[in-house]
Amino acid sequence: VSDLDLFPSNDPPVAAKFPLSRTDLEGDTPLAARMRPRNLDEFHGQDHLIAPGKPLRSMIDQGKPGSMILWGPPGSGKTTLAHIIAERTKAVFIGFSAVTEGVARVRKVITEAENRRSSTSRSTILFCDEIHRFNRAQQDAFLPHVENGTVVLIGATTENP
What residue stretches are annotated with the AAA+ ATPase domain (predicted)? Predict the structure, then answer.
Protein backbone atom coordinates (compact mmCIF):
# COMPACT_ATOMS: atom_id res chain seq x y z
CA VAL A 1 0.00 0.00 0.00
CA SER A 2 1.39 3.36 -0.99
CA ASP A 3 1.61 6.36 1.33
CA LEU A 4 -0.45 8.23 -1.27
CA ASP A 5 -3.50 5.94 -1.00
CA LEU A 6 -6.48 7.76 0.47
CA PHE A 7 -8.14 4.50 1.43
CA PRO A 8 -5.47 1.92 2.17
CA SER A 9 -6.57 -1.66 1.68
CA ASN A 10 -5.01 -5.07 1.91
CA ASP A 11 -7.29 -6.35 -0.88
CA PRO A 12 -5.55 -7.65 -4.00
CA PRO A 13 -5.61 -5.31 -6.99
CA VAL A 14 -8.69 -5.48 -9.20
CA ALA A 15 -6.59 -6.99 -12.00
CA ALA A 16 -5.86 -9.98 -9.77
CA LYS A 17 -9.58 -10.52 -9.14
CA PHE A 18 -10.55 -10.18 -12.80
CA PRO A 19 -7.62 -11.38 -14.89
CA LEU A 20 -8.06 -10.11 -18.41
CA SER A 21 -5.31 -9.93 -20.95
CA ARG A 22 -4.74 -6.88 -23.09
CA THR A 23 -6.13 -8.77 -26.08
CA ASP A 24 -9.35 -9.50 -24.18
CA LEU A 25 -9.99 -5.79 -23.83
CA GLU A 26 -8.44 -4.36 -26.97
CA GLY A 27 -8.68 -7.13 -29.55
CA ASP A 28 -9.55 -6.49 -33.15
CA THR A 29 -12.92 -8.15 -32.65
CA PRO A 30 -15.68 -5.55 -32.34
CA LEU A 31 -17.48 -5.38 -29.01
CA ALA A 32 -20.77 -6.40 -30.62
CA ALA A 33 -19.17 -9.61 -31.91
CA ARG A 34 -17.68 -10.39 -28.50
CA MET A 35 -21.06 -9.84 -26.82
CA ARG A 36 -23.09 -11.79 -29.40
CA PRO A 37 -25.10 -14.73 -27.99
CA ARG A 38 -23.38 -18.07 -28.58
CA ASN A 39 -26.31 -20.38 -27.82
CA LEU A 40 -30.09 -20.36 -27.51
CA ASP A 41 -29.96 -19.80 -23.75
CA GLU A 42 -28.07 -16.53 -24.29
CA PHE A 43 -30.43 -15.38 -27.06
CA HIS A 44 -33.08 -12.94 -25.81
CA GLY A 45 -36.52 -12.55 -27.35
CA GLN A 46 -38.83 -14.89 -29.24
CA ASP A 47 -39.35 -17.08 -26.17
CA HIS A 48 -42.59 -18.37 -27.70
CA LEU A 49 -40.38 -20.04 -30.34
CA ILE A 50 -36.98 -20.75 -28.79
CA ALA A 51 -37.63 -21.40 -25.11
CA PRO A 52 -37.21 -25.05 -24.06
CA GLY A 53 -40.14 -27.12 -25.32
CA LYS A 54 -41.28 -24.51 -27.84
CA PRO A 55 -41.61 -25.31 -31.58
CA LEU A 56 -38.37 -23.95 -33.06
CA ARG A 57 -36.30 -25.04 -30.07
CA SER A 58 -37.69 -28.58 -30.35
CA MET A 59 -36.81 -28.76 -34.05
CA ILE A 60 -33.29 -27.50 -33.32
CA ASP A 61 -32.81 -29.86 -30.36
CA GLN A 62 -33.82 -32.79 -32.59
CA GLY A 63 -31.29 -31.64 -35.19
CA LYS A 64 -34.00 -31.11 -37.79
CA PRO A 65 -34.58 -27.41 -38.37
CA GLY A 66 -36.83 -26.58 -41.28
CA SER A 67 -36.37 -23.80 -43.76
CA MET A 68 -37.60 -20.46 -42.46
CA ILE A 69 -37.72 -16.71 -42.94
CA LEU A 70 -36.44 -14.48 -40.12
CA TRP A 71 -37.94 -11.01 -40.25
CA GLY A 72 -36.90 -8.02 -38.20
CA PRO A 73 -35.05 -4.72 -38.13
CA PRO A 74 -31.28 -4.57 -38.62
CA GLY A 75 -29.40 -5.74 -35.55
CA SER A 76 -32.25 -7.79 -34.12
CA GLY A 77 -30.34 -11.09 -34.21
CA LYS A 78 -31.43 -12.78 -37.43
CA THR A 79 -27.92 -13.73 -38.53
CA THR A 80 -26.90 -14.65 -34.99
CA LEU A 81 -29.88 -16.98 -34.63
CA ALA A 82 -29.03 -18.67 -37.94
CA HIS A 83 -25.43 -19.22 -36.75
CA ILE A 84 -26.68 -20.67 -33.46
CA ILE A 85 -29.02 -23.04 -35.30
CA ALA A 86 -26.18 -24.26 -37.53
CA GLU A 87 -23.84 -24.73 -34.58
CA ARG A 88 -26.44 -26.53 -32.48
CA THR A 89 -27.42 -28.89 -35.30
CA LYS A 90 -23.80 -29.42 -36.42
CA ALA A 91 -24.70 -28.21 -39.91
CA VAL A 92 -22.35 -26.36 -42.21
CA PHE A 93 -23.27 -22.65 -42.34
CA ILE A 94 -23.02 -20.99 -45.75
CA GLY A 95 -23.76 -17.28 -45.99
CA PHE A 96 -25.26 -15.89 -49.17
CA SER A 97 -26.40 -12.40 -50.14
CA ALA A 98 -29.35 -12.10 -52.51
CA VAL A 99 -28.08 -8.63 -53.40
CA THR A 100 -24.50 -9.40 -54.44
CA GLU A 101 -24.50 -13.05 -55.52
CA GLY A 102 -25.98 -14.70 -58.57
CA VAL A 103 -27.18 -18.02 -59.91
CA ALA A 104 -23.64 -19.32 -60.53
CA ARG A 105 -22.89 -19.08 -56.79
CA VAL A 106 -26.23 -20.73 -56.01
CA ARG A 107 -25.32 -23.70 -58.21
CA LYS A 108 -21.85 -23.97 -56.65
CA VAL A 109 -23.27 -23.94 -53.12
CA ILE A 110 -25.87 -26.57 -54.04
CA THR A 111 -23.23 -28.85 -55.60
CA GLU A 112 -21.04 -28.55 -52.50
CA ALA A 113 -24.05 -29.28 -50.26
CA GLU A 114 -24.95 -32.39 -52.29
CA ASN A 115 -21.37 -33.68 -52.13
CA ARG A 116 -21.13 -32.98 -48.40
CA ARG A 117 -24.42 -34.72 -47.71
CA SER A 118 -23.46 -37.85 -49.65
CA SER A 119 -19.91 -38.08 -48.26
CA THR A 120 -20.37 -36.99 -44.63
CA SER A 121 -24.15 -36.91 -44.03
CA ARG A 122 -23.72 -33.34 -42.73
CA SER A 123 -26.50 -30.98 -43.62
CA THR A 124 -26.01 -27.47 -44.98
CA ILE A 125 -27.76 -24.38 -43.71
CA LEU A 126 -27.82 -21.77 -46.42
CA PHE A 127 -28.34 -18.38 -44.83
CA CYS A 128 -29.64 -15.89 -47.38
CA ASP A 129 -29.41 -12.29 -46.26
CA GLU A 130 -31.82 -9.82 -47.88
CA ILE A 131 -33.90 -12.71 -49.20
CA HIS A 132 -36.62 -10.28 -50.26
CA ARG A 133 -34.21 -9.22 -53.04
CA PHE A 134 -34.13 -12.70 -54.63
CA ASN A 135 -34.84 -12.57 -58.34
CA ARG A 136 -36.81 -15.24 -60.20
CA ALA A 137 -33.68 -17.01 -61.51
CA GLN A 138 -32.22 -17.31 -57.99
CA GLN A 139 -35.54 -18.63 -56.68
CA ASP A 140 -35.77 -21.20 -59.46
CA ALA A 141 -32.19 -22.37 -58.79
CA PHE A 142 -32.84 -22.88 -55.06
CA LEU A 143 -36.37 -24.22 -54.88
CA PRO A 144 -35.93 -27.89 -55.85
CA HIS A 145 -32.95 -28.25 -53.51
CA VAL A 146 -34.81 -26.71 -50.59
CA GLU A 147 -37.79 -28.95 -51.28
CA ASN A 148 -35.69 -32.15 -51.46
CA GLY A 149 -33.69 -31.29 -48.34
CA THR A 150 -30.28 -30.73 -49.93
CA VAL A 151 -30.13 -27.42 -48.05
CA VAL A 152 -32.06 -25.85 -45.21
CA LEU A 153 -32.76 -22.29 -46.28
CA ILE A 154 -32.83 -19.63 -43.60
CA GLY A 155 -33.70 -16.29 -45.12
CA ALA A 156 -33.33 -12.96 -43.39
CA THR A 157 -35.26 -9.86 -44.34
CA THR A 158 -36.09 -6.43 -43.01
CA GLU A 159 -39.13 -6.29 -45.30
CA ASN A 160 -42.47 -7.60 -44.08
CA PRO A 161 -42.88 -10.93 -45.88
Answer: 64-158
What crossing angle do the helices spanning 136-147 and 103-120 adopt, rounded to 10°?
10
The pLDDT of 6-11, averaged and rounded, is 53
Question: Would you state the pLDDT for residue 150?
Answer: 95
Q: Is residue 129 part of a domain?
A: yes
**How far apart are alpha carbons 113 and 105 in whole angstroms?**
12
Q: What is the DSSP string of 54-113?
A: SHHHHHHHTT-PPPEEEE-STTSSHHHHHHHHHHHHTPEEEEEETTT--HHHHHHHHHHH
Tell me the per-residue pLDDT of 39-61, one tens digit each, with 9 for 90 and over: 999 999 899 999 999 999 999 99
In a domain, 80, yes or no: yes
